[in-house]
Amino acid sequence: MHYEGNIIRPPSEAYSILLQATVGCSHNKCTFCGAYKGERFKIKTDDIIQADIEFAARHCRNQERLFLCDGDALIIPQPRLLAILEQIQKRLPWVKRVGAYANTKSIRMKTPEELKILRSHGLKIIYMGLETGDNDTLAAIHKGADADRMIQAGLKIKQAGMQLSITVLLGIAGRARSEEHARETGRVLSAIDPDYVGALSLMLIPGTPMYQDYEEGRFPLLNPAEMLRELRTMIAHTHLSNGLFHANHASNYLPIRAQLPQDREKTLALIDAALSGKVALKPEYLRAL
């Protein structure tokens, strides 16, 4: 397979075929993210993508899922993206689900009808980074969208019949807006009602603007107890009809996997037990991105 730069994929796509259709991220301005720094966003040529599909046809016959890398494959113009999905269906007929990252810009560029067509050609799950529902924090981290636009984008994906997985970041608002971040994120998640929510704990990356703010004393990094209290407030304010809220990423201090709404009280009790010292937290040296 032909890969350029850092290959980033969701944890749930660990065993998927990784087909790199784009390089980098079309936004690439978030202050906390160092995944694609120094990489200029581009869509790979059709011949390279087709060659990788042919490679997968020969060597990846046991994988039933495929993920379109990198940071925002949905931004590929509709005719080209549809052609890629058609080739996947033709050459990899055993693949049951294609996934991709998307942001509000790329979702806004697709009409509801175009999204439904993509869904009918195998694109069945979209991963979107919300990070926070707090407008002040969204602006501070240069996310490129406010909470209302995030809600509109998420609902648009859901209405197209695709599954939606949303990522949020504990600690992203610092200490001053921690409570607002947790409450507003719960509100936005409730309005969208995604199928999956993944909560990661902020880990600062050298070279990013947020890391520089931390080094110069402008951004405080929350301690484990503060992150757990933030997570507790977020879950308490998140009302999903039947969604999986998980905080079992390698960055998290306390692994959580909760089906909401039925596991809410049990999960809040687990967090309370951890805050009181009755449940051990992951040691710092085991945390990772």
Description:
The model has no long low-confidence stretch (mean pLDDT about 95). This protein has one domain: TIM Barrel. The longest helix is centred in the middle third of the chain and has 15 residues, at about 180-190. Helix 2 (about 80-90) links the parallel strand 4 (about 65-70) and strand 5 (about 95-100). It has an eight-stranded mixed β-sheet with strand order 1-4-5-6-7-8-9-10. Strands 2-3 form a two-stranded antiparallel sheet. The protein is of the alpha/beta class. It has helices at about 45-60, 80-90, 105-110, 110-120, 135-140, 145-160, 180-190, 210-215, 225-235, 265-275, and strands spanning about 15-20, 20-25, 40-45, 65-70, 95-100, 125-130, 165-170, 195-200, 245, 255-260. Helix 7 packs parallel to helix 9 (about 225-235). The protein has ten helices and ten strands. The relative contact order is 0.11.
Low-confidence stretches at least 5 residues in length (pLDDT < 50)? none
Strand content: 15-25%
Tally of DSSP β-strands: 10
Structural class: alpha/beta
Question: What is the domain total for the residues?
Answer: 1
- Strand order within the widest beta sheet: 1-4-5-6-7-8-9-10
The third-level CATH topology is: TIM Barrel
What is the CATH class? Alpha Beta
Sheet with the most strands, sense and barrel status: 8 strands, mixed
Average pLDDT score: 95
Number of helices: 10
Shape: globular
| SSE order | EEEHEHEHHEHHEHEHHEEH
Q: What percent of residues adopt helix (DSSP H or I)?
A: 25-40%
How far from one another are the termini?
24 Å
The assigned CATH architecture is Alpha-Beta Barrel
CATH superfamily label: Aldolase class I
Whole-number radius of gyration?
19 Å
